[in-house]
Design a protein that fits this description.
The structure holds two protein chains of two kinds. Chain A is mostly helical. Chain A is built from 15 helices and no strands. The chains are: A mainly alpha, B mainly alpha.
């Protein structure tokens, strides 16, 4: 008996319980999250602090420049000049003076309500179109793509018989012109792009050939050369005596350019539709256009909505190029405003660019968020 | 009274269809001829005479081997540039080929008694209609253009390229250019500047894009968000605005040459550009270059041998380190052995400006910054998507095989991710090259900016724009040819 006890004591395993270990570090809650995502190793800890420092540098600089040191009101450059040792940040006073021009160009101030009415109608129609659950999609499409452009043209350009004085396009400018170019580009490029996408997948060799040449040509050249072409060569193409409005010329170029990109996006959607859908439609005895309009395109377009929105974003950013050929879109008029000798200060240019970046960014970021939202919304069927 | 059998009716329908097709073909040719005479030649026989002499010239160029291959190609190029008869030939041969194709493939098919409901007839009719309408439209445009050019007394043709340019260009690389050089040389300078800017931009954007793309996938929250913020901000601001901002905010306010910012005692930053020492190569430098290239060739050979050996015996070989030693070490040794055959030309202030050294103009820096930062956001997204596209099972399988993390990335993840990454990456490279044309906005002398000056001076709008389009289209087509080759090579081999 004693022997076994002795033997027991000499054994290698423990005879009494260990004290309990401390609990493992929390993997939930704020602390756990931080440990997981910020301080998982010494290397990541360093990275975290370097990253935080960079963010701090940028944010503090921006806050200092755009808010704390900013000049909010003033009549001329003296307001935004550093005197008495005060550090001068953004010169928002300058933006305030020029803001009307930035928004409407040289559109007469007493007629600007017309632009606002066009905006408002467009916003309401767009909202109906973009909110997936809103009713009456077909009616809204008709209104937006057929009636609205006519209405907008009458309101913006004017019609004396209706009591709206004519405003020449040379006086259009600013954000308004940017939006007009982008909107016309979108409204033309979508149907044209669909046509060329169908043409590229057509059974008819000549149609396919023409479509391929068209698409590859516009996709292969930079937009700026297209704009030069439309502003220099388009007048040469037309018979003598026919002149084309200075705003219409780049519109033609932008619309054709965007159509080619749109065609490639739509073609992606068409290729993704299973062959059975085509065969099923043909077996039902549908004609080509019935098959396309009722069966194929609704599915294909739905599938490529993100791509279409991305093309729109690109188009919106590209409208800024018209400033190079002498149009006063938002960027063009802002560049022109920098030459205002009354406001020549070192901070004018940074302020203007910051402001422009903000405006463009809001539009583009909004569109990209919408495209992500639609992607998720439409993707539910395939998601597990 | 005989009753037509189905076969007879069928034959009748097919003859009717054939007759209609031939009739509309003839009609198309007639309309084309009418449009050419009406809009372009102005008389009834112009097209025929032009075509006759054109075909004669091409035939003469084809049989004329005396000038050698270059003269032969030149003759054909001249023939191609002669637009009107070339276009007429394309139309005539195009319609002819299509009708031949129709006769062989679609004519034998059964016909419907009513041509309006016959698919094969409707197709060919619609094609003829579209093609002819397009051709008439082209004649109309070309005719208008020719009339307008005559009105403005502008002689068309590319002869102006040999005229004296008379303007200076502030960045001339690789070739000689002075104000007395020709327009053609100026155009070439612009092309070189475009290519140099695009090439450096592509390299930098790729590096930055890969870093940011991988940062966005980091499990470190701050780093991932920093990268995401960078992408979301710079992707959504127009490139032109970014170019203006870099140029007018970051580079223009730099001090005058006399108050230059000095880095490392030899690099000077000012509003005229960045001045750095310029290496001057002496005799013997050729040996260093030769050593460098032989290092590269030797590395390729060693890599092949090592791969073969590993396939056969499983023995790995440190290819990377050996190659590094050969490519960098060998030239370095030769460099010291030949007595360091290089010295530097330092920039020095003389009067109000710097002399000597190497100068990078601020326009170039601004373009490079904007293009790199803008394009890198897109590349980052492509890289991220590519890495995410590799299934997680691949990672797990690689780790289960006992590969180290580095081996896993190098041998398993990256090759598969590249298959997804490369096609959109190439299209971004193409975008960057095309976007470099925005240089015209800040007067960096690229193809478009130089072309614009020539256009304003000479008024040869059609020719200049045609040259631009030709250059950019060639770059695009060459890139897509490369893409097709690459896709075919990298395609997953399936059963």
């Amino acid at each position: 008996m004693t022997d076994t006890v002795k033997e027991h004591k000499r054994s290698f395993y423990r005879t009494e319980m260990l004290p309990p270990k401390p609990p493992p570090p929390a993997s939930t809650g704020v602390l756990g999250w931080m440990r997981e995502n910020l301080f998982s190793s010494w290397w990541h800890t360093i990275l975290t602090f370097v990253g935080l420092y960079i963010i701090w540098l940028i944010v503090s600089f921006l806050v200092q420049f755009a808010i704390i040191d900013a000049v909010w009101s003033g009549q001329d450059r003296t307001a935004c000049l550093a005197d008495g040792g005060r550090e001068i940040g953004a010169c928002w006073a300058f933006i305030r003076v020029w803001h009307n021009k930035y928004m409407f160009g040289f559109y007469p101030e007493d007629q600007q309500w017309r632009v606002l009415v066009v905006y408002a109608i467009g916003a309401v129609l767009l909202a109906f179109l973009l909110i997936p659950r809103a009713p009456g999609k077909r009616l809204v499409m008709l209104l937006l793509f057929v009636i609205y452009p006519v209405l907008a043209y009458i309101l913006l350009y004017g019609m004396s018989s209706l009591g709206l004085p004519v405003i020449e396009t040379t006086r259009w400018g600013g954000l308004m012109l940017t939006l007009v170019i982008a909107a016309v580009g979108i409204v033309i490029s979508l149907p044209l792009g669909i046509l060329f996408a169908l043409g590229r997948r057509s059974q008819m060799p000549v149609i396919r050939f023409i479509s391929i040449i068209f698409i590859e040509f516009w996709r292969g050249v930079p937009l700026i050369t297209v704009l030069f072409m439309s502003s220099v060569m388009l007048p040469l193409f037309l018979p003598e005596g026919v002149t084309l409005d200075k705003v219409i010329r780049p519109l033609v170029g932008v619309a054709l350019f965007a159509s080619a990109y749109m065609a490639e996006v739509v073609r992606g959607g068409l290729q993704a539709i299973p062959k059975g859908q085509y065969e099923g439609a043909q077996a039902l005895g549908l004609t080509y256009w019935q098959m396309m309009l009722l069966i194929i395109l609704p599915q294909a377009l739905k599938m490529v909505i993100p791509g279409i929105v991305n093309t729109f974003i690109g188009l919106f950013k590209d409208t800024s190029l018209v400033s190079i050929i002498g149009l006063f879109d938002l960027l063009g008029i802002a560049q022109a405003s920098l030459a205002d000798a009354k406001w020549a200060t070192p901070v004018t240019a940074p302020t203007v660019y910051l402001y422009l970046a903000l405006v463009y960014w809001v539009f583009c970021f909004g569109m990209s968020r919408y495209s992500i939202f639609m992607e998720n919304y439409l993707h539910t069927g395939h998601k597990r | 009274m005989s009753v037509a059998t189905p076969a007879v009716r069928e034959n009748g329908a097919r003859s009717l269809r054939l007759g209609l097709v031939l009739f509309f073909t003839a009609l198309s040719y007639a309309i084309f001829y009418w449009a050419a005479s009406r809009f372009y030649y102005g008389n009834a026989t112009g097209l025929l005479a032009d075509l006759g002499s054109y075909i004669g010239n091409i035939a003469a160029a084809l049989v004329d081997f005396r000038k050698g291959v270059l003269g032969w190609i030149g003759g054909i190029l001249v023939a191609l540039a002669n637009f009107a008869p070339f276009f007429a030939l394309v139309y005539i041969i195009g319609v002819g080929l299509r009708i031949l194709n129709w006769l062989l493939l679609e004519h034998p098919r059964p016909a419907s008694p009513n041509p309006l409901t016959d698919r094969h007839f409707r197709n060919i009719f619609f094609e003829l209609l579209m093609f002819t309408a397009l051709a008439v439209f082209v004649w109309w445009i070309v005719g208008n253009t020719v009339t307008n050019l005559q009105e403005r007394k502008i002689a068309s043709g590319f002869d102006f390229l040999s005229a004296t340019a008379g303007f200076g260009i502030n960045q001339v690389l690789f070739i000689d250019y002075t104000e007395s050089s020709s327009y053609g040389t100026a155009f070439l300078v612009g092309l070189i500047n475009t290519l140099v800017l695009s090439f450096i931009g592509i390299v930098l954007a790729t590096i930055l894009g890969f870093i940011v793309g991988i940062m966005r996938l980091s499990k470190n929250w701050v780093i991932a968000k920093l990268a995401a913020g960078y992408v979301e901000i710079f992707r959504n601001i127009p490139l032109l605005l970014q170019i203006f901002a870099w140029y007018n905010v970051a580079l223009k306010p730099l001090p005058h040459p006399r108050q230059s910012i000095v880095l490392f005692d030899s690099i000077y930053l000012n509003n005229r550009g960045i001045y750095s020492p310029k290496p001057i190569f002496e005799d013997g430098w050729g040996f260093v270059v030769a050593a460098f290239f032989s290092g590269i060739i030797a590395s390729i050979a060693i890599a092949r041998w090592a791969k073969k050996r590993q396939m056969e015996t499983g023995q790995p070989f440190p290819v990377f380190l050996t190659s590094l030693g050969l490519i960098l070490g060998l030239p370095l040794i030769v460099f010291f052995l030949t007595g360091m055959p290089v010295h530097f030309d330092y920039p020095h202030l003389r009067g109000f400006n710097f002399q000597g050294g190497m100068r990078v103009i601020p326009e170039f820096t601004a373009m490079l910054m904007a293009l790199t930062i803008y394009t890198a956001t897109f590349i980052a997204e492509i890289v991220r998507a590519g890495i995410l596209a590799v299934p997680h099972g691949q990672t797990e399988a690689a780790l289960a095989l006992g590969l180290t993390r580095g081996q896993m990335l190098r041998l398993v993840i990256i090759p598969q991710a590249l298959r997804v990454i490369i096609p959109p990456l190439t299209s971004q490279y193409l975008n960057l090259t095309k976007n470099s044309s925005l240089a015209v906005a800040i007067a960096y002398p690229d193809l478009v900016a130089v072309g614009g000056i020539i256009l304003n001076q000479s008024g040869q709008a059609v020719e200049i724009i045609a040259l631009w389009m030709l250059v950019y289209l060639s770059i695009s087509l060459a890139t897509s040819a490369f893409m097709n080759w690459y896709n075919a090579k990298m395609k997953l081999v399936e059963r």
